[in-house]
Amino acid sequence: MTRIASRVSQLNGEGALAVYSCAKELERQGRSIIHLELGEPDFHPAAPVVDAIRNAVAAGRDRYCSTRGVPALREAIAEYLKRTRRLDVATEQVLIAPGCKMALSLAMMALIEPGDEVLYPDPGFPIYPSFTRGLGAAAVPFGLEEKNKFQPDIEEIARKITARTSMIIFNSPNNPTGTVFSNSALENLAKLAVKHDLWILSDEIYARILFTGEYKSIWSLPVMAERTVIIDGFSKSFAMTGWRLGYAVAPTQVIDAMDLLVLNTFTCTAEFTQVAAIEALRDSTNAVDTMVAEYRKRRDQFIAGLARIPGFRCQAPDGAFYAWVNIEETGLSAEELQKVLLEEAGVAGIAGAAFGPGGKNYLRFSLVSARNLLEEALERMQRVSTQWRATVSQ
Ligand SMILES: Cc1ncc(COP(=O)(O)O)c(C=O)c1O
Q1: Cβ pair 66, 95 in contact under 8 A
Q2: How far is the CA of 311 from the centre of ligand 1 (A)?
Q3: Fold of the 6-44+287-388 domain
């Protein structure tokens, strides 16, 4: 009998993409939609990066290349992490993949056994529990709650660790809450990892999009470089989503295992994108700082505007480019609000349950549209809020 392997039934999709297709359909019917649903920057890579990919293709850098990635890029990443995150990373500890998601899944395939338990943040990136289940392991959520300023509750995590727990996954700054894990949270997570001999999978894709302080990676804490895998890439910090370029930083035995998985699947990441990525890391036009300054303005404007909408409550995120809005006081469910906002206001946001049960009373808006569009979105939402205003003031 022909059948699909059961592991596929364990996977889930991504809510953002479902809302995006509804929004696209409304646009096709002539409606004006402001897209705040996808985590895709409206910026494009800096001009020297675009020149670099053109030159790389013209120079014939379009061959099969090293399974681990082009050595010059791996070296440049080690240097970049030293410069921007004060990390000591050897070139041998870096592996290039087509996107952060691929780096993430290779690391998970290399380290998770069927029957393991893996702790992950709720709300969080929906692929963590999905891929964990796909590997035959149990995904165990830990809460990021508003009452704790969306910081992890270390006691809850400690309680949930069992003899089967093999990994803690987290993402700081977090998608969707924008929380940057505090130094004490990182130190306590590190202590738990050492005590229970766990892997840490630290998804640092938003590390450069930071509004306060300097980024601290759990890798830099004593002995943590032995048991941490960092996932990062070019999609968000360098506005290179469609280039599909990410990387993992890990102990060399993990990199060796991931390398064998690369060889057995996609062989290598496109060479010309890797060559151009070296130019992105060089950042000769200061594109990252310019982009982050703009995200900060958008954040300040949008968070201030949300406060005017009855029943909406939102803490200013410390990093990433999302607004995570508590809508409990509107008396409507997040799904009802998502629908009203899309169909009646033409504003596409996502009901928070797409990021786990902890997101039930929230909506996520991505600050990936220009400030005039964000202002227009706020005005439109204010206009339709007459539908629930009475509930809030009761
Ligand atoms: C937390 C997190 N990790 C990973 C990814 C995937 O990154 P990439 O597009 O490089 O595969 C995303 C994308 O939204 C994300 O939010």
Answers
A1: no
A2: 30
A3: Aspartate Aminotransferase, domain 1 (3.90.1150)
Residue 391 DSSP code: H
Which residues in the chain come in under a pLDDT of 70? Answer: 393-394
241: Cβ below 6 Å to ligand 1? yes
Per-residue confidence (pLDDT) for residue 14, from 0 to 100: 83
- Which residues are registered as beta bridge partners of 314? 325
pLDDT digits (tens, 9 = 90+) for 205-236: 999 999 989 999 999 999 999 999 999 999 99
**264 to 106, 131, 259, 268: CA distances (angstroms):** 11, 19, 9, 10
* CA 288/CA 283 separation, integer angstroms: 7
pTM above 0.90, yes or no: yes
Give the type of residue at 56: A
Helix (H, G, I), strand (E, B) or coil at 228: strand
Confidence (pLDDT) at 390: 80
Outline where 70-196 has alpha helix (H).
71-85, 100-111, 127-134, 154-160, 183-195
Q: Is 205 in the pocket of ligand 1 (CB under 6 A)?
A: yes
Going from the Cα of 205 to the center of ligand 1, the distance in angstroms, rounded, reads 7
> Can you give the residue ranges of every domain in the chain?
6-44+287-388, 47-282
Residue 393, pLDDT score: 63
**Which pLDDT belongs to residue 394?**
55
Q: Is 203 in the pocket of ligand 1 (CB under 6 A)?
A: yes
Domain 47-282 coded CATH 3.40.190.290: no
Sign of the CA dihedral with 188 first, then 191, 192, and 193 last:
positive
Is residue 350 lining ligand 1, measured as CB closer than 6 Å?
A: no
Q: What is the pLDDT of residue 392?
A: 82
Side-chain half-sphere of 264: how many Cα atoms within 13 Å?
A: 9
How much is the pLDDT for 13? Answer: 85
Q: State whether the Cα torsion 328-332-333-334 is positive or negative.
A: negative
